[in-house]
Design goal:
With 321 residues, the chain is an alpha+beta fold. The protein has three domains: 9-68, Roll (Structural Genomics Hypothetical 15.5 Kd Protein In mrcA-pckA Intergenic Region, Chain A); 78-164, Pseudouridine synthase, CATH 3.30.2350; 171-316, Pseudouridine synthase (2-Layer Sandwich). Helices cover 22% and strands 26% of the residues. It has helices at residues 22-29, 35-43, 78-81, 118-129, 157-168, 247-254, 268-276, 308-316, and strands at 9-12, 48-49, 52-53, 65-68, 90-93, 97-102, 138-139, 148-154, 173-181, 190-192, 195-199, 205-209, 221-230, 233-240, 284-292, 299-303. The strands form three sheets. Strands 5, 6, 7, 8, 9, 10, 13, 14, 15 and 16 form a ten-stranded mixed beta sheet that branches. Strands 1-4-2-3 form a four-stranded antiparallel beta sheet, with no helix packed on it. Strands 11-12 form a two-stranded antiparallel sheet. It is globular and about 60 Å long.
Length: 321
């Protein structure tokens, strides 16, 4: 059932939402509105921030006035909207931040057909455990749903801004473990190829490499180091200097070595074979994260070991040597 006579809405950005991208802010507030429609009203200029047009990647600030055009929002019961309480493995926690080891198959936030993700479940769990509830929990960055590994959550607005600035200014070190098909060439250590986003007919986001003179291309840099060689595979350490959507997946696939199990940019026939041998998802894991602590200014380096499913495949896959 949908609400009748949708009207223009004005949203005031609160302190907890400050620093979010406009698209993510709207997706969070327009529950029941398809993600593709959210992007459509942004592109058309119907969404305004402080009476001016804004792009999807515009960062909203506390006090901003966001105009939302009439949209139909599907009504859902309170139970359907409520995320179940869930804690996740903790790698580091203090009064400023939480570093969790996100499992594969869990979205970092709700939206695009997903009712809830890590942040909603964590908020619910902390409300149950702490008197008065957790006042502030916000994602610092993102991981793809099928990617496991280190994910940072800020517990204070000051920490959120500081850490997001570090990510934006490329002051963090983000290294992933990726198992690719084939024998990765030792000489190929730097991939400096721009990426461009596009939409499929059904509205799903995709990314492709593009020419350096493409005005819509975004410079994207990945550093690659061979960690292990197996028969038919190479395990890579990939450090990203830019945080583009699907960057590692597209960069590696464009070199002819897609990530094993990647259902968007991979070798689909090979993936079916790999599933029979125990690899049920993409072999991509956020393994190491380096950053400066937002309060102490001390250097922090975190590691998340390969999860059991990937570790089991690496040890028992028939193709491995």
């Amino acid at each position: 059932m949908a609400t009748d006579k949708p009207e223009v809405r004005w949203l005031t950005v609160d302190e907890e939402s400050a620093g979010q991208r406009l698209d993510n802010y709207l997706i969070r507030h327009l529950k029941g509105v398809p993600k593709t429609h959210v992007y459509r009203i942004i592109r058309s200029g119907e969404v305004r921030v402080n009476k001016g047009r804004a792009a999807a990647d515009t960062r909203v600030a506390a006090g901003d006035q966001v105009r939302v055009p009439p949209v139909r929002v599907a009504e859902r019961s309170t139970d359907a909207q409520a995320a179940p309480a869930r804690e996740f493995p903790i790698l580091l926690e203090d009064e400023h931040l939480i570093a969790i080891d996100k499992p594969a198959g869990v979205a970092v936030h709700g939206g695009s057909g997903v009712s809830f993700g890590v942040i909603e479940q964590l908020r619910r769990a902390r409300q149950y455990q702490q008197p008065g509830g957790a006042r502030f929990l916000e994602l610092v960055h993102r991981l793809d749903r099928e990617t496991s590994g280190i994910l940072l959550v800020a517990k204070k607005r000051s920490a959120l801004k500081n850490l997001q600035d570090q990510f934006r200014e490329r002051e963090t070190g983000k290294t992933y473990l990726a198992l690719v098909l084939g024998d990765w060439p030792e000489r190929l250590k730097v991939i400096d190829v721009p990426l461009r986003r596009y939409l499929l007919e059904d509205g799903e986001r995709r990314v492709r490499v593009t020419a350096k003179d493409d005005p819509e291309g975004l410079r994207s840099i990945s550093l690659v180091r061979v960690r292990e060689r197996w028969a038919g595979f190479t395990l890579l350490e990939v450090t990203i200097k830019t945080g583009r959507t699907h960057q590692i997946r597209v960069h590696l696939a464009a070199q002819g070595h897609p990530i094993a199990g990647d259902d968007k940019y991979g070798d689909f026939d090979r993936n079916k074979t790999l599933q029979k041998h125990g690899l049920k998802r993409m072999f991509l894991h956020a393994w190491r994260l380096q950053f400066t602590h937002p309060a102490s200014a001390q250097a922090v380096e975190l590691h998340a070991a390969l999860p059991p499913d990937l570790l089991s495949f690496s040890k028992h896959a028939p193709q491995a040597t």
